[in-house]
Queue: 2 jobs
Job 1
Amino acid sequence: MKVVTCIAPVNIAVIKYWGKKDEELILPLNDSISASLSTDIMCAKTTVMASPSFEKNRFWLNGKIQCMETNTRLSNCIEMVKKRADSSLEHYNWNISICSENNFPTAAGLASSAAGYACLVYALAKLYKIEGEISEIARQGSGSACRSVYGGWVQWHSGTLPTGEDSIASQIAPASHWPEMRALVLVANDSRKKFGSTLGMYRTTKTSTLIWERVNKVVPERVKQMRQAILSKNFESFAEITMKDSNSMHAVILDTYPPGIYMNDISQAMVNLVHCYNDYKGHNSVAYTFDAGPNACIYLLESEVDEFIAVVNYVFPKLKSVPNSEYYKGYPLPDTTKYVKNKELNVSPCSEGMLKYIIYTRVGEGPSVLVDQKEHLLQQNGLPKH
Ligand code: DP6
């Protein structure tokens, strides 16, 4: 029996991927850039186990058995890893059990499939001892997964080859390059999405005219500026491009016919809060970005966290019945009672309970192997422990 357990990060894009030029190979219309968030707080965890006694391949996601035969993205990933492996490995032809878990809500627009596929491909690569570039394989599980194969700041190059060989991710800078960078995930709603990104972006490419302006003109320019902002740690410019690009993606989603709408009234209130806060500060000190869901990821520097979280608590009061331990997740948040509401901040509070919870995290490292046997999600018989 052979077994490997790994973890992989969630990534949140600052230049968004929305739209494919090849649906099967998952080739994006434009380059995108993201940060991988600390696996200490949010991660996917996957155990892969191969054994000569397993009668078939099996896969559990968050405790539920999945049908492997109909999941072409999953079988493509397994096949591509095995194609690169040495077929003389003892366990090459053994069946495998896979068990994967996220420690955050699946399909709530919190990039769960990205972390999940990156983790799966990373674990399979370790099991079958393949070396080198694996982001091309993770991409075929879920496009954005290719960025979670690396830590820190990552660019997914759309590539020009029809085979997709050059549609790979590469690291722009490690997390240590900008150690002050933090992220606050403001969770408005953690229920499942109405329709996923795959269908949403397919409809956009078929019906939106605005997408071509975005893909051909807006994004190529922004990618250059964003790389520069990251490399020179220019938060002002980083924040402006991040917010504009999130707005641009949601604009093309709205330009889709029938229109897509992922952000809700609470998301709009978050956008308003960030702009009011930046106005009051006199410069961009926090930046929002929204994926295919209503939750905001706020990028900000460590020095800004105390004051901004005080404002979030003022504008989005917590329901008194929800304990702090369920509301504030991630790294410990500072005590904000010392900040009294500044009258110049022109924003009124919403009613209680608009946010379900807040996750405080930072930019972090890429996937890693967990060597401790206790970490395995599968028992020796290939069935999940939980
Ligand atoms: C909105 O990677 O989930 O998060 O490639 O079809 O699986 P598929 O889509 P997916 O797209 C996520 C897009 C996004 C923006 C981004 O992460 O860049």
Job 2
Amino acid sequence: MRKSVYNNEKSSVTNVATPHPYDAVYRRSIDDPEAFWREAAEALTWTRPFDRVLYTSKAPLYRWFPGGGFNICYNALDRHVASGRGKQTAIIYDSPVTESMLWISYADLLERVSHFAGALANLGVTKGDRVVIYMPMVPEALVAMLACARIGAVHSVVFGGFASNELATRIDDAAPVVIVSASCGIEGKKILPYKPLLDAAIDMATAKPRHCIILQRSQAEATMVPGRDLTWDEALVGAEPAPCADTLATDPLYILYTSGTTGAPKGVVRDHGGYAVALHWSFANIFNMAPGEVMFTASDVGWVVGHSYIVYAPLLRGSVTVLYEGKAVGTPDAGAFWRVAEQHRVATMFTAPTAFRAIRREDGDGEYIAHFDLENLRALFLAGERCDPPTLLWAQEKLKIPVVDNWWQTETGWPIAGNSLRHGALPIKPGSAARPAPGWDVRVLDADGVPPPVGEIGNLVIKLPMPPGSLATFWQADDRYIKSCLSQFDGYYATSDAGYIDEDGYIFVMTRTDDVINVAAHRLSTGGLEEAVAGHPAVAECAVVGVEDAIKGQVPLCLITLRAGTDRKTHAAIEQDIAQRIRDQIGAIAAPKRVLVVDRLPKTRSGKILRQSIRSLADGTPVRMPATIEDPAVLDEIGALLKAAGFGQA
Ligand code: COA
Ligand code: AMP
């Protein structure tokens, strides 16, 4: 029998009963944030008390717990071993793609991390140095992250699905002393050698690492560069276990690059102390997870969800984290998640709606779900993209547990809105990520900074200061952070999401307001894609938009015009070339649904390409004809071409 902590009949509730136990918690976090977070901080171990809870003198940049001595690795590992939890499992590595499984205890993990930290120190990595980690979903990725944290180095994990060009951009911005990587990743049945991509990226980058540490996996052997590269095992030879560095709560823990409007990614910086306090609190309260319980976050360590809820939050809480190297479907089938959930007695799962859409496509009747014993599974969290109501309702109906849509971003580090399960689930309204989580004062503002009437769509903004765990700044780019996120609405962080808040305070996130698209919960910049396309010698102009896709949410569509004199017969070859170019420069995750040569692009009289109109034509939704359009006939031409290519059949 399933544990019923949630009443499914409430899934379409429109009137939300108040007061709810959650209300008082939320109110306190907003009315007296310093008391709220001071109390949350007490659950963790500090080597020195903080001077104050919140530092405001450099507003709009805020810092939490200044002066506090705090190391996140100590709190994630040493603290638990010291309190007798050493023998408990910390990580369950479950890898259907290599047919292997490994249980790593807290004591074992501490030993691995301390030794690898010693290896990094032997290579000259010191406090404040950057280490880029470009790894598949293997335990060594977590070991490398925690080892950096241990010695106060700043890690920057780059998602393994990014190609050399993207990796090179990140290497140049972070300027790492060492890069940690692996010989290959494994995607389903494909073995993807990482080392050639890494070598090409280092060739492209101006900032050269002193050393690379490469985990040689048995599926592919990497060729090493003498003098620069060491294998993982070689790096460990003679390495002494390193103690935790005397880091401050405000010291940088990591840089995580994310897509913005342009091709230059933004390096989100997060600190040791505030991040740990927020994650520990959110894991205990929003996720309602206790020490020793098993969390299965099916994401990737290269994304923020992976940083927060595969690695740091479960370990900070003394829980067990499942590190899953596989897919939702195909490794071997649509029952993979449920096999993991049953086998490891998973209490809570977290993934992206796109994974559920893929599962539902193959197992609409939920036969796999019914086949497994999911007695322990209490809740499913979905984030990374808008959760469409049919997916949420399907998951809820088949699993009979709360399905929590939670809204957040790389910048925020943990859910801005969701359902705080420890305080009793709020009724779920499909399409909404429920109410703001404690600490987040979310508002809707129109373009002039005025709140529109309740229920009307506008810019979703967060009143400053944001709670601990939110970004400190962009790496070495305070100005860029202030300009792109804190200047549009005075006193608020602009999320670049648009949506509305209803009469019950529920947040509905509807769309991005910038040129970011969301492909299978991977955040991509159309500006970045356009830069890659425009570099092709035959391309005169291009427009990349995100069009609807039943599984991935959105996928890129590229329209290009060609330089004068380009042979019409070569159009198909150029289209293929460009699709390949995107795979090579950005990565296969950004592969376009279609590249189409067109005679001209729709523009305003001032020359601005009408991307929204292209998107509407491709999605088959009503096209808003801008008054300033240069030539309305272009839209008919493009519409006809897209129709012939199978688009616009909404
Ligand atoms: N390393 C290298 N390549 C990768 C990769 C990685 N880590 N991840 C994806 N790719 C490649 C895939 O091999 C594929 O290449 P191909 O086109 O040559 O076959 C391409 O990128 C697209 O992969 P993906 O987006 O995963 O699509 P898919 O069709 O293989 O799988 C889903 C579809 C929905 C199952 C899958 O996208 C998914 O599970 N998404 C969830 C993502 C997620 O968890 N995001 C984090 C948010 S919380
Ligand atoms: P990322 O920084 O990659 O996590 O992407 C963050 C973006 O994904 C947000 O700004 C939203 O556009 C989108 N997003 C994430 N979670 C949700 C959600 N629950 N509902 C709607 N959009 C979401």
